[in-house]
Task: structure prediction
Amino acid sequence: MKRTFITLLSAAALLIGTASCNSNDSVKQAQDSNEMKADSATADTNMGKVEEKGMDYDSEFLAKAASGGMLEVELGKAVAARAVTPDAKKFAGQMVSDHTKANAELMALAAKKNITLPTTLSDDHKDVLKDVTEEKGVKMDQEYMKEMLKDHEEDVKEFTDASIKASDPDIKAFAAKQVPVLKMHLDMVTKMKPTVDAAK
Result:
């Protein structure tokens, strides 16, 4: 009986996901799936609204972080292969290395918490990938560093917030662990960007 209910729930999730996800945004789709899980958990356990709200924040944070992490790796690989300035090439290589490790931790954590993650980039992150990789030579390096500065300013804020606001202690700890690494990345890109911007 329980298995039938889960199968029906999965079918309903697919139907609702198909109907509501005209936007094809991977983070939105993952979050819709997580909200359905939270709703069914609330129905099963009478979990309070405060806990449900906390779960929404946690799952949304992980979904956005997953897309951001994928962007760092995909974009890092593309730029490392084509960069013409040593700083952009070095920074891109660092992003691939550090974010591949963080992404693996994030996926393991999400699996443990039964949180659905996007498997492709969000629409916003697809736009960033396109904007950078459409450029060539020094222009690509400069666009990459510009996006990485903006991205890491946002990441430091979001991960710092999650290290305080996340309701799940493991998610809170994951966010806190990443903050020093993200601050190091922000420091790196802040120092390297002027040199890349000055390149001809």
Summary: The chain has one domain: 2-198. The CA atoms of residues 144 and 177 lie 25 Å apart. The two ends are 68 Å apart (CA to CA). Residues 49-82 form the longest helix (34 residues).
